[in-house]
Design a protein that fits this description.
single chain, about 290 residues, alpha/beta, Rossmann fold, eight-stranded mixed sheet, 8 strands
Length: about 290
């Protein structure tokens, strides 16, 4: 369903009993709500949550921002590398405001928040900008944005901004994403080929918006270092991070744990930058633990 929030239209799915504890799942860069697997959502519903997943602005079936143009990623990457200011079409803070407005539009005063990767960055901004909306935080494979933290290798950076061999061919786009996920995924929990083809194929056929992904990427770079804000977070926080994450190295999770008061941290050996099926019970336990502490 489409819901108007913060002046834009967001695609939203609402799962579980309306009487359940509201839990909002915020996905990462270029990822759609379907990246939260229905079986994972069902596990959360079984724990008593009312689970809300949605497409971030500019992705999936939510409102497009094509009128803002396509960023020059090479130039913006260079600006970021030398510490120059980056002008973004919109900001991570704007996306946090989208989430707060979505809760308001749904008549939900506050909710537990779980964000993965860029979604975790949005969740940090949400907890600071709209603390009354956040009961607890679960931050998965994400970062404070501190420049001192190690980043991805050149190989991973290059793969992230690369394009499919034939962007107009669905199978070519799927193969492109399969290759990327093989590169950044969990070495100890490799996803079967058929699973990746099915999941990524579903996403590509539902919506393929590389320009939106590029605008989101610039928004991340422009958001900079959130470290000065993290001391304001008082909500119970669970940090989950893979020790083998090649995109957002584990030091980022450790850094968040040190900067958010009272945060509990779960560092998982062999986990990369994805949500492997065998780890779902561990993720659910972490989300439920943060909710209990609230």
């Amino acid at each position: 369903m489409q819901i108007s929030a913060n002046g834009i239209s967001l695609e939203v799915e609402d799962h579980g009993s309306p009487a359940g504890e509201p839990l909002v799942l915020i996905m990462g860069l270029g990822m759609q709500l379907v990246a939260w697997h229905p079986d994972f959502v069902a596990m959360l519903v079984a724990r008593g949550f009312r689970v809300i997943r949605f497409d971030n602005r500019d992705i999936g079936l939510s409102q497009r921002f094509d009128h803002l143009g396509v960023p020059n990623l090479a130039l913006d990457s260079l600006r970021f590398a030398v510490g120059m200011k980056i002008k973004a079409p919109y900001t991570v803070a704007d996306m946090a405001d989208d989430t707060a407005a979505l809760l308001a539009a749904m008549g939900i005063p506050s909710a537990h928040i779980c964000g993965a990767s860029m979604g975790g960055m949005i969740a940090q901004q949400l907890a600071v900008r709209h603390p009354q909306r956040v009961k607890s935080l679960t931050l998965i494979m994400t970062s404070s944005g501190a420049r001192s933290l190690p980043g991805p290798s050149l190989k991973v950076r290059s793969a992230l901004i690369s394009r499919p061999a034939d962007p107009k061919n669905v199978q070519s786009v799927i193969e492109h994403y399969v290759k990327l996920y093989r590169l950044i995924g969990s070495p100890d929990y490799p996803a079967p080929e058929a699973y990746l083809q099915e999941r990524l194929g579903q996403s590509v056929r539902r919506s393929y918006r590389p320009a939106g992904t590029a605008r989101q990427m610039v928004a991340i770079a422009a958001d900079g270092n959130r470290s000065p804000l993290l001391g304001q977070i008082r909500q119970p926080t669970q940090i989950i991070h893979g020790k083998a994450d090649p995109l957002v190295p584990v030091e980022a999770g450790i850094d968040l744990g040190a900067k958010i008061a009272g945060a509990e941290i779960d560092l998982i050996p062999g986990m990369g930058h994805d949500l492997p099926t065998p780890l779902w019970p561990r993720f659910v336990a972490g989300i439920a633990g943060a909710a209990r502490r609230a």
